[in-house]
Amino acid sequence: MWDWLVKHHRHVIVVLILIITFQLAYSDIFSRGPLWGPSKFLFAAGSSVLSGIAGGVNGVRGLWNDYIALVHVKRKNIALKNQLAVLQMRVKVLEDVEIKYRNILNVLSLPVPQKNFSYVTAMVSGRDMNSIFRSMIVDKGVIDGIKRGDGVISTAGVVGRIIRLTQHAADVLLLTDGGSYIDGIDEQTRVRGIANGTGRDKLEFMYILSGDRIGVGDTIITGGKDGVFPEGLILGTVTKVKPTPRGWLFKDVSIRPAVDINKLNYVMIITGGRP
Amino acid sequence: MKYAVWAVGVFILALLQVALNNYLPAYLAPDLFLMLIMYMTLYYGYYTTLLGIVVLSYISSVFSSGSVWFFMFSYVSVFYLLNFFKKYFDRKQIPAIVTLSLLTTLAYSLFVLPLSVFAGKTALFGAAIRLGLIQAIANIAAACLIFKYVPRIDRRIETGVHAAP
Fold first, then answer.
1. What pLDDT, in 10s, does the model give residues A73-113?
2. Whole-prediction pTM value?
3. B residues 109-138 lying closer than 8 A (beta carbon) to A
4. In this structure, which topology does domain A181-258 adopt according to CATH?
5. What is the DSSP letter of A263?
6. What are the residue boundaries of the structural domains of chain B, listed by start?
7. pLDDT tens digit string along B23-71?
8. In sequence order, which ranges of B63-92 are alpha helices (DSSP H)?
């Protein structure tokens, strides 16, 4: 036995390492521990370099987009002005509806949802080392008033939440990551569920009972119950509802995120006014 | 001293990887660390490679939302598989690098399977395989550059692949 161990000691070492790390990796596959010690130093140093690179690249992109690629801008400007006028009218109507809604809530002594939240704009300076996981580095940190757990959004909808941060940089867990869970509601039918990332460019909308009404094309918005995002931010659109076999409890629902994660250059981090 | 230089080089490689992932689509950005592990398995000593894998796993976890154990498990698995197969690649430089790169990419994707199944995230495995298949070409290109430019740290020509292309 001892001779066999001595002869095959290399294989034994590797197999032992694999068994131990498998146990640890399985229990810790979506580890989101805060940064400390050398990790914090390496992350801070790396993110400074990366934000320098991102600043340079965005500068060149900006030069191109702002000064050189201006063909058809005038035509597009007119179209956008028309669109803006239509949207402004719609906002007026919705503001009127909102005032009535808040008055009703006051009369009924129900809690009035918080309307405004403050945010900090941040530049995306890097993406996750490994394509299986989905996170990105932004150039704002503790000194900008950001805390662990803050929500991150863009003009299109929800992006993710802050999981680790240093003085000048932060790591954002994207909503498409397998470890991301966000409270959501079907805007049309008010069915509530949890939007969970899959590691790909789609989400699963979990815990939808087989009897619940939910259809392809429905918009899923944040539910406001997770203490991170205010209610009403767009998560995505339902792309697939798999028919439930008899006896199954939950439906299999897929969502396409509203935000194109791969094209994000700037994001907004919600720093105050959370629900 | 050369180990310190190596560690700094790995840190720069990690930043390069993060920047590449930011500016390139996923299938065009090679997995530099995976290719470096392949190179180390062929040209570095057994224990030096294992030590290197620990460092690479740690740095990966700093710039990723995955845990250090996840990286260690997948990297050591790939190392073990390559260590077993390397003797079959004899003196054919470019074909050997191409085949090994493909094997490494596929092996890495496969080793995500047990973890994703146990964590209840089988979609992760699908994502890894899909990405691995289309990322393979970028990985081959990265492997050629690594074979050409990364210095050999402690030894040896006992493997089948004898020289950089």
1. 777 888 888 889 889 888 888 988 888 888 888 888 877 76
2. 0.81
3. 112, 114-116, 118-119, 121, 123-124, 126-128, 130-131, 135
4. Thrombin, subunit H (2.40.10)
5. G
6. 2-149
7. 888 778 888 999 999 888 888 888 889 999 999 999 998 998 888 888 8
8. 68-85
Please give the Cα distance from A250 to A206 (Å, whole number): 8
Q: Give CA–CA dist B5/A273, Å, rounded.
A: 47
Closest chain A C-alpha to B92 CA, distance in angstroms = 27
For B122-145, what is each residue's pLDDT tens digit? 777 777 777 777 788 888 888 888
* C-alpha span between B108 and B113 (Å, rounded): 9
Asked if pLDDT for residue B113 goes beyond 80, the answer is no
- Output the six-digit token pair for B6: 């190596």
Which 3 state secondary structure label does DSSP give B149?
helix
Q: Where are the domains of chain A?
A: 181-258
Residue owning tokens 């989400």: A203
Cα A48 from Cα A41, distance rounded (Å): 11
Alpha-carbon distance B18 to B97, whole Å?
A: 24
Give A203's DSSP letter.
Answer: E
CB spacing of B68 vs A31 below 8 angstroms: yes
Tallying the residues shown for chain A, one arrives at: 275
Angle at B23 between CA A56 and CA A69, to 5 degrees: 65
